Fold this sequence. Notes:
It contains 4 helices and 8 strands. It has helices spanning 42-49, 52-57, 105-118, 136-144, and strands spanning 3-9, 17-22, 31-40, 62-63, 67-75, 87-89, 127-132, 150-154.
Amino acid sequence: MSTMNVVKKQGPGRGIEITTDAIPEPAPDEVLIKVNIAGICGTDLHIYRWDAWAESRVKPPLIIGHEFIGTIYALGKNVKHLRIGQRVSAEGHITCGRGITGRRMFETWYQCESFLLKNGKVIDPIITHVLDLEDVEKGFMEMEANKAIKVLLKVSK
Ligand SMILES: [Zn+2]
């Protein structure tokens, strides 16, 4: 059985673990993506800290990582419009397709930037840390110390 490295919330409480899990098979309408770079953000920090927000929404065990780029590694049998090796990214929010997050990416990022500025966040630059996967804890420490808003993790080549 082939395995992949994962960042996983094993159970309630502070912290996160780097471990391995079985590589899943894509369902007929899915693709399997080999992640190259993953972002950790404020949502992941909630999960890491295990605050009231996380406790009310997250059901561990859970592999975290909803922001990433990678390449398509395997196709479900119904997927015809994509190909193995294609570089992809994902947007983790399900939208109606008509609201702000369903419009052009530029508009979405503009709204995001406005939100960050309105809330006193320094956005230049947002990405200040690019770390190896093994240093995920360091990434959370930097975020907790307000030295980073978003941290990128090098997952695979
Ligand atoms: Zn996020």
